[in-house]
What does this fold into?
Amino acid sequence: MNTFNNSPSTSRLSPLPRKLPAVPLESRRISRPLPTIPRALICKKCSTCITSHNVLLPLSSIPSDSRSFKGFSGKASLFTETYNVTLAKAGVQLMATGAHTMQEITCGTCSSYLGWKIVRAHEKSESWKDGHCLLELENLLVQSESTAPLNISSNHRRTSSGSETDISY
It folds into this structure.
């Protein structure tokens, strides 16, 4: 690659490539392990970390007449955050509690169905669900270790908003 040499003695093309300065030592990053998620829930099919018990929607945020959620395969729970998931295009679904704009949530690694993200509840009385993720517990397992690594890949979305045995919340 040819560069211009703008020194006073010559103003012709120089065959030498331009050298960049070295990166200062204090600006070099040190690689650190990713943080861990306590009480992680993982995909039943591929064991990818999906969410944690710590980000369950608090009971104080849920009306007392709406404490039991059901998905297509059984019990479900509302979570405020999910990791390593892919969201489908939003669409309107008619549920028992009214119309909701929702996105299907699938595992970012194996593409297995996990639940729905409630983008918007069309009934005012159901608006407390907006932005939260309804995950079906049948499709999740509790991580056997006390903590699981958080592997957030750049091509998977993070959204904000079980296990084979019965889990009660």
Q: What stands out?
A: The mean pLDDT is 76. The CA atoms of residues 108 and 155 lie 8 Å apart. The first strand starts at residue 3 and ends at 4. The chain has no helices and 15 strands.
